[in-house]
Amino acid sequence: MSTTNMLQKGGCQSKYLKRYLPNILTCIGSAGVVLTAVMAVKATPKAMKLLKTAEDKKREDLTNLETVRAVGAVYIPAALAAVATVLCIFGANALNKRQQASLASAYALLSQSYQEYRNAAKNVYGEDADSKIQAEAAKKMYICENGNYTYDPYLDCSSEEALFYDAYSRRYFTSTMAAVINAQYHINRNFVLRGGATVNEFYEFLGIDKIDAGDIGWGDEFLESGFMWIDFRNDRVKMDDGMECYIISTIYVPEIT
């Protein structure tokens, strides 16, 4: 094997180790808990014998210090295993925090890039371009989700309800404009009073199911940017087949809180 191949192989192994080191340390820590308990249990009979011998030799009860001196050496392997276990657990936790910080930074950069691209598209093509893009995305979702229609406009018999499309979770639901505005008001109220709000909270106010990626939202970074209110857009669009719906989107995309 050439030196170059050896370096490439070593680099791949190093990247693999760096990526999965928190998981490896967590597994070692879990195994260390079991090993510590097993070693302690195995050492106990021997320690009891040494303790009894020391008591018989002294012919009276041992002090705490004498007890430690008599049996301490027996428990040294278990103590070392316990220390190694604790170090693995703390190490895994520290690495996980570092990875989470890296992910948060990457997400913030992606969110910033997306917002800059969206603003640039508006400047180049006008405000209508953004609405048309959202409408096209909603139309594709309407037609193509799981190969089936997600909503049949002919089944909607209520004149008060309307069809809505949430641009973040990419799903349709029926509600009234009053209910949607009310949900947008209450999520903003939580944001102002508490200093943060999540996407899943907004969905609770809308009366629709939460999503796995809905624990992000608007928090400290949003406030530090000088924004005091979450602006929503409720754009009314008409599909090619004549179906009308309101596309709900936010001016500023949610972030990790």
3D architecture notes:
The protein is elongated, with a radius of gyration of 31 Å. The protein has two domains: 106 residues, no CATH class; 124 residues, no CATH class. The protein has seven helices and six strands. It has 257 residues and is of the alpha+beta class. The strands form two sheets. A four-stranded mixed beta sheet has the order 2-1-6-5, with helices on both faces. Helix 3 crosses helix 4.
Rg of Cα set:
31 Å
Q: Write the element-wise H/E pattern from the N-terminal end onward.
A: HHHHEEHEHEHEE
Largest sheet: 4 strands, mixed
**Which structural class matches the secondary elements?**
alpha+beta
> How many runs of DSSP E, i.e. beta strands?
6
The total tally of domains equals 2
- End-to-end Cα distance, whole Å, is 49 Å
List unreliable stretches of 5+ residues. Answer: 3-12, 143-159
Strand order of the largest sheet: 2-1-6-5
Query: Residue-averaged pLDDT, rounded?
Result: 75
Taken as a percent bin, the fraction of beta residues is 5-15%
